[in-house]
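Schema walk-through. Below, the input block comes first and the output block second. Nothing else is stored per chain. Lengths vary across the set, and this one has 369 residues.
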Amino acid sequence: MNLSMNLKKLTLFLILIGIITLGSGGVYYYRNVYKIQKKINFMKQANISLRVDNIEKAISVYQQLLSETLTERERREVTSQLATSLFLTQDLEKQKQAVELIKKEVINFKNSPLSRAYFVVVLGTFLNQAPTREFRYAVIWNNEPYKSFGEPAFSFKVAERKLFEYANSIAPTAIGELKVGYWYASQLMIDKSLTTSIKKEYSETALRHINTGEFLIPHDSQNLPIDRSFHARTLLQSAKGIFAIHNLGGSVKDVKNSFEKLIFDMEKEAGAPSQNPYIYDMALLTRFQYASFLVHAYDSSEKDKIAEVIQPIIASPLRRSFYVYLREKVKSPPPVSSPGGYPSLPELKLIAEISPEFKAYLNQLGGNL
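--- output ---
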C-alpha cells in the first residue's frame, strides 16, 4: 500500500513539474520568441509599405511598434524611421511633427549620449528636404540650442556644419565627424578666396575629422541602423575624392575603386527590386556622388562610365527622399541650399551636360536645364 501511495505521489509530482515546465516555456516563448517575431513582422510590414510608396501605412506600423517593449537600439531605429516617414509625406504639419519628435529625443536624457547624438544627425538629414527656408527658420532653428548656431545668424552651410559639431559634442559618430570633415574639404574646392594659411588649416581640420569618422564606421555599423553606416561610407569617399582630385592626398584610382565596391555592397544589401528602401535610397545618392567625382576627376573622358553610373537613378521605381531632393533642387529658383554630401544645382547641371538622358530626367521633375 505504501509503495502504491509513493508511486502515486511521485507521478503527481512529475506531472506538476511538467505543467510548471510547460508553463514556464510558454511564458518564455511569449516574452521572447513571440515578441521578437512580432517586432520582425512589424518591421517587414513597414519596409514593404515604403517599398510600394505607402508611407501612411509605414507610419501606422512604426507607431504600433513604439507601443511594444523595445531595446534602446530598436526604439532609436523605429523613432528615426517614423520621423523620416513623416517628413517624406510632404505634409507641413507632419514634417513639423517629425522635427519635434526628433528634438524631443535629443533632450531625453534617458537616452544614451550615442542615441542623442544620432537623433541630431537625423535632424541634420531633414535640412536638405525642408520645403522652404521659412520652414527651417520656424521649425528647425526656432529654439535653443539650434537658434544660436542656425540661420539666419549663419549661412546655411555653416549652420549645417555647426549642427553636426553639436552632435559630435554629445557623442562622436561617423556621420557627424564626416559631415564636418566634408564641409572643410569642400571649402578647399569651392572657396577661391582662401589664403594659403587658411587652406592649410582647413586641410588639416578636414583630415582630422575624416580620419576620426573613418575610424568610427565599424563601431557605428554595430550600433546604428545599417543605412547610416552606408551614408557614412558615402561621405567618406566623397571627402576622399576631393582630396584626391586636388592632389591633397590619396589616389583618384583608389577612390574610384572604393566607390564601385560601396555601390555593390549597398545594392546587394538593399536587395532586388528593393527589400530595404532606406539603403536603396542611399545607393542612389551614392551613385550621384560617384558620377560627380568622375566628372571632376576625368571631365568628359569618362562619359560612358558616368552614363552607366547614373542610369539606375533615372530608372528607379522608388520615389523617396533622394527623388524628392532632386525634384526640389531643379525648381527655379531652388528653395533649398545644398547640405554637405548632397548634390548642388551646379553639380546637377554639370552631369546633365554630359548625360542627355539625365538632363531629360531632371526636366521631367520640373527643371529647365
